[in-house]
Amino acid sequence: MLLVLTCAIACELADGPATADIDLQQAIQTIRKVGPNGNGSPDASRAWRKVAGADVSRLGQILAGMDGANSLARNWLRSALDEILERARKDVVVLPQKTLEAFLADQKHDAQARRLAYELLADMDKTIPDRFLPQMLDDPSPDLRRDAINRAFDDAEKLARAGSTADALTLHRKVFAAARERSQIDRSVQRLRLLGEKVDLARHLGLVLDWKLAGPFPNEQQKGMSAVYPPEQKIDLQAEYQGKTGKIRWIAYYSTDDYGLVDLNKALGKHQEAVAYACTDFTTRQAQDAELRIGCATAFKVWLNSELVLERGDAYTGMSLDHYLARVHLRKDNNVLLLKIAQDTPPPQVAALWQFQLRACDPSGAAILSATRPGGPPSEERSTAKPEQGSSK
Amino acid sequence: MKRLCLALGLLQVAAGADWMQFRGPGGSGVALGEAALPEIAADKNIAWRADLIGRGVSGPIVVAGRVIVTASSGARQDRLSILAFDVGTGKPLWTRTFWATGPTDCHPKTCMAAPTPVSDGKFVVALFATNDLVCVDLDGNIRWIRSLYQENPGASDGRGLASSPVIASSTVVVLAESQNASFAAGIDLDTGSDRWHVGRPREPNWTTPLVIPANPAGEALVLVQGTTRLSAYAAATGREVWALTRGSHPIASGCLSGNSLFVPGEKGLAAFELQPGPEPPKLLWEKITLNPSTASPLVHDGRIFALRGSILAVGDATTGQMIGQLRLKGSFSSSPVAAGDLIYCFSEDGLAQVVRGSKAALLSAGAFSETILGTPAIADGALYVRSDRHLWKVHEAKARLTRE
Questions:
Q1: Residues of chain A with pLDDT > 90: what percent?
Q2: Which of A47, A59, B62, B255 places its Cα 20 to 30 Å from the Cα of B8?
Q3: Is the pLDDT of residue B310 over 80?
Q4: SS3 of residue B89 by DSSP
Q5: Which residues, 6 or more positions from A48, have their beta carbon under 8 angstroms from its beta carbon?
């Protein structure tokens, strides 16, 4: 009898974790099936309780369950971790550090899950930032990269203060190359320029500088954005159009702004209730996915190769770099970008801005440059607008 | 008319003593049958103070012994949290955090935790400005999660969305209206799936839907205060039961008192009489001097209180006649709330100003010294006030006032 009982306990001990693993994995798989419109929620809700009830030793398995999952499923799993972690804190259970470190180090895992692992580790071990951040300047997780860049910037400053100017410059260059967020880029550029470095910020970011502009077209009562003017039907850079105030033609415009600002008030003159078009060619040597990131003070539309890829109606909500994003596919060779930008009547005490900026980049924010992007136009063309003489670039 | 009043009565009973949505019972801003404190401040009559992990323009709600708030945090405000605290002790009960699936751009004054969560007493539904919508039970167990941004591409506002969800007929009604893709939807509280979904005008709108009395057919109705069209939808089906073409306020939400509906608008605060049938409500009066700036108006004990800049305008709810006005300090995003005869107004810089409603007189002012944009909750004689950093329970049994 004793032998039977001992065997039973031994079998349970032996099978327990394996069975728990399978149950947990099945629950994770159930959660991964959730979809839009609440699809899969009843099953996922039951599975969530299993995941949330898992032992803290299963953190790695649950985090890995986020790999490749849709954003809904990742949030289901993320919130189950909250329950597990709250229980661990209450019961004073130590988290599986080695598992979490291995998970963090593997860049193939989900970026947000890795960031979560990093924060859990940093809470329990103060050496984690020192050990991990120096290798994370190019990390796919924007949050980890941000911390790594901040840390490297501080290190460069320490080097500069210690008189190691050359080393400081080298590190600042690395920081600039890795920086993807406006505040970090601004700070990095400022420091590099103080150190005598020439920085082509617009190129670094992939901001498109070279445009053809046509406008103003009418936009009374904001009807201009839905009106289809000739450039939306066919881009003919030699064409003459009937505009809001008379005949208009395409003009060339090259932005010399660090952030690629195209100021239509300066290029086309100040107009109320108007729309303008901006057009450019974008050449790639191979087809690739890309993000078009746009800042614009007013309503706008963007077409890529005649397909509408983004439309926003916001007006005077504040203009910022990368405010809007369109995920697109650039075809091999020539692509045509067309923008339509509205000028609306601004609210009281708000400047009548009529401007935009656009850049092409990969999902991390690294620039994708047109193969025909000029190194820089002749000096007499910079900051000027003049009637278009030839075909598009 | 009897049916109308009966339906309204049921609404109020259902709301109970808890504070379960934006502006509490019936979206009125008025605590049912509760007296409260004449003097409050961060160092006066504080039962407890809890730390919050992120920012929030949303108000707290109080449900079954829990205070529930939302918060957003992270460098990009892309971490969205629901936090539950014990009403008695302020002890954290649970937190659920989610990653934003929609854009997090907004005016710096607001954040992603702008809409106030809503509860039916069993479940809590939290909407964020990213259009992430989550339903949990009172213990934080997840029921369902929706990404309304991914399902409605472009449905975001560069200034930040803020309309709070409401619940009627076991349907969660959400409104996402901006100059971009706009919609209203009724979502099954039980399953998280759409019961209905309608396109809405592309116009800026931060108001919260208002549950209004059921029609004779027994349909619970939800008022949607569009900036150009005031509509009543059947909560369960999305059928537009009546509509009025008129310019309404894009920020300050309307409120209900009996069968009178008060809607901030282009030409002033408008008072309507709800009709028992499918007809739209009848306009009674409009008063520009009672039209609020940002905070929603309060109707209490036959009086209207509207914050116009730093002026608290007081009017007669029946006639629209001005009764008086009171200059307060600061500017106001948080809507005024009432308990007993006391009106609580929190300025953006955290000054709590307590007004005796019947006399339109300032009783006291106390500093919380933190930015307060969310509308407080009142339950069981206690106020629950949130800033970007803290949640306070303001309560002192000995100092309770009885209603005059």
A1: 81
A2: B62
A3: yes
A4: coil
A5: A27, A31, A76, A79, A80, B141, B142
Question: Does A38 lie at the interface with B, CB-CB under 8 angstroms?
Answer: yes
Q: Mind telling me how many Å the CA of B250 is from chain A's nearest CA?
A: 14
In order of A76, A217, A329, A368, the CA distances from A267 in angstroms are 50, 14, 30, 26
Flag whether residue A226 sits within 8 Å of chain B, measured between CB atoms.
Answer: no
User: Using alpha carbons only, what angle is made at residue A125 by residues A68 and A80, rounded to the nearest 5 degrees?
Assistant: 40
Q: Is the pLDDT of residue A351 over 50?
A: yes
pLDDT digits (tens, 9 = 90+) for B253-271: 999 999 999 999 989 999 9
pLDDT digits (tens, 9 = 90+) for A146-194: 999 999 999 999 999 999 999 999 999 999 999 998 899 999 999 999 9
Q: What is the pLDDT of residue B209?
A: 98
Asked if the Cβ–Cβ distance from B141 to A48 is below 8 Å, we say yes
Buried b (16+ CB within 10 A) or exposed e, A279-295: bbbbebeeeeebbbbbb
**For residues A48 and B72, what is the distance between their CA atoms, to the nearest angstrom?**
23
Partner residue facing B75 (CB), from A36, A72, A146: A146
- Select from A62, A388, A46 the least CA-distant residue to A213: A388
Distances (CA, A) of B34 to A227, B9, B300, B340, B378: 56, 17, 13, 6, 8
Residues 6+ apart with CB under 8 A from B256: B8, B26, B27, B28, B210, B212, B262, B299
Judged by CB atoms closer than 8 Å, whether chains meet at B140 and A317 is answered as no
Which one has a higher pLDDT value, B261 or B400? B261
Model confidence at B158: pLDDT above 90: no
The Cα of B144 is separated from the nearest Cα of chain A by a number of Å equal to 5
pLDDT at position A298 over 70: yes
B404 exposed, middle or buried (CB, 10 Å; 0-12, 13-18, 19+)?
A: exposed
What's residue B403's pLDDT? Answer: 35
Of A41, A80, A315, the CB nearest to B144: A41
What is the model's pLDDT at position A16?
Answer: 55
CA distances from B383 to A276, B42, B49 (A): 53, 12, 12
Could you tell me where the DSSP H helices lie in B2-98? Answer: 2-15
Q: Which residue has the tokens 């150190």?
A: A195
Cross-chain Cβ contact A312/B180 below 8 Å: yes
CB neighbour burial string for B162-174, b if at least 16 within 10 angstroms, e if fewer: bbbbbbbbbbbbb
d(CA A280, CA A339): 9
* Rounded CA separation B383/B118 (Å): 17
Long-range Cβ contact pairs of A243-246 (< 8 A, separation 24 or more):
A243/A214, A243/A215, A243/A216, A243/A217, A243/A218, A244/A215, A244/A216, A244/A217, A244/A218, A244/A219, A244/A271, A244/A274, A245/A216, A245/A271
What residue ranges in B121-170 does DSSP mark as E strands? 123-127, 132-137, 142-147, 166-168
Contacts of B368 (CB under 8 A, 6+ apart): B41, B42, B346, B350, B351, B352, B385, B387, B392
Per mean pLDDT, which range of A123-132, A193-202, A328-337, B68-77 is the poorest?
A: A193-202
